[in-house]
Amino acid sequence: MVGPQEWYRFRVKTSPVLFQSMTTDHLSRVSSALLSMFVYLVHHGDSLGPNADPQRPLSSLGHRQVEVLSRQAAALSVCPAVIWHSGKLRARQTAQIYWRACNPVAEFSATRWMQPDDPPLLADLLQVETRDVMLVGHIPHLERLRLRLLQESASQCFPSHGAVALERLSTGWTECWRLELPSSA
């Protein structure tokens, strides 16, 4: 599998002459890499309850959780070109922490169809998106979106306050890895 960093280096260093000298097998691998893109689904960190604050910002535990996982994501060379969040304060705060850790020059904005009860309509957009995308939102929406992309009916649950990386290949979507908090966090 070619990760985002390796693919960037490949694109920068290749030339048309190289493509003329490639075998069919090599061209097949290159075309698969051209179709490849990553989607990082991120559940917001722990938040205050509605009685403590109706806007439900991240708690101090939530800030720590997100800092740890965002550093782990950056260590895995996660570098989305765009980071979209639901617009809710806890999701925006989580997205900002990942933004600083993974790619502070990424496009950053709230987007529609990311609320907890929204249908997974973003799946259609992600089928044609060419950039690596990070979506920061809520369960159960993230789980429905993950299952729709993977074309699964049920599998492992989405990790609470965690992240899941999906890659789109010519054959469809595949789950690459998960970042989960230790059970003591």
Q: Would you give the CATH topology of the largest domain? A: Rossmann fold
Secondary structural class: alpha/beta
CATH class of the largest domain: Alpha Beta
How many strands in all?
A: 6
What percent of residues adopt helix (DSSP H or I)? 40-55%
Largest sheet properties: 6 strands, mixed
- Label the overall shape: globular
How many domains? The number is 2
Number of helices: 7
Q: How much is the radius of gyration in Å?
A: 17 Å
CATH architecture name of the largest domain: 3-Layer(aba) Sandwich
Tell me the fraction of residues in β-strands, as a range.
15-25%
Instruction: Kindly report the spatial arrangement of strands forming the biggest sheet.
Output: 3-2-4-1-5-6
Q: Which residue ranges are poorly predicted, with pLDDT under 50 across at least 5 consecutive positions?
A: 1-22
Give a short synopsis of this structure.
The chain has 185 residues and is of the alpha/beta class. It has seven helices and six strands, in the order αααβαβαβαβαββ.
Secondary-structure topology with pairs:
Elements: H1 4-13, H2 16-20, H3 24-35, E1 37-43, H4 60-75, E2 82-85, H5 89-102, E3 107-110, H6 122-128, E4 133-137, H7 141-150, E5 163-169, E6 172-179
Parallel strand pairs: 1-4, 2-3, 2-4
Antiparallel strand pairs: 1-5, 5-6
